[in-house]
Specification:
The chain has 131 residues and is an alpha+beta fold. It has a single domain, classed as Roll (Thiol Ester Dehydrase, Chain A). 18% of the residues lie in helices and 43% in strands. It has two helices and six strands, in the order αββαββββ. The chain has a six-stranded antiparallel sheet.
Length: 131
């Protein structure tokens, strides 16, 4: 069975994004194999694909801290692209920097199969009571 990032639904399945190992608030890893369908007109991996991977990894780290009465949603995600990505395996790692009662602050980075850092991100996630 392939484990998908929590809350990512059919979207993660359509990208074949999957969890690597057991996520914790300190570390959540999401990987995907990118191919020609994920490239932009310049022949490199579309920035939206990379942002999606960062979003999934950071959100997973936040989700691991939630009680059954809570849910979460991203409020802001900032991404810095450091190097163009080519088709192949991309791995995003998310870490929780701080979590309060109503907001959480994760960060993340993406590396390629050779370990080169391609992008870094940070964000703010709202912690919302379930109704």
């Amino acid at each position: 069975m392939t484990l998908r990032p929590p809350g990512s639904g059919a979207f993660a399945a359509s990208l074949d994004a999957r969890l690597v190992g057991e996520p914790t608030p300190e570390r959540a890893v999401v990987e995907m194999l990118v191919g020609d369908a994920h490239l932009n007109a310049n022949g490199i991996v579309h920035g939206g694909v990379m942002m999606t991977l960062l979003d999934m990894a950071m959100a997973t780290a936040v989700t691991r801290t939630l009680s059954p009465e809570e849910r979460t949603a991203s409020v802001n995600i900032q991404t810095t692209f450091l190097k163009a990505a080519s088709p192949g395996r991309l791995v995003a790692t998310g870490r929780l920097l701080r979590r309060g009662r109503t907001v959480a602050f994760p960060e993340g980075e993406i590396v390629d199969g050779d370990g080169h850092v391609l992008a870094r991100g940070s964000g703010v996630w709202a912690i919302i009571p379930k109704r």
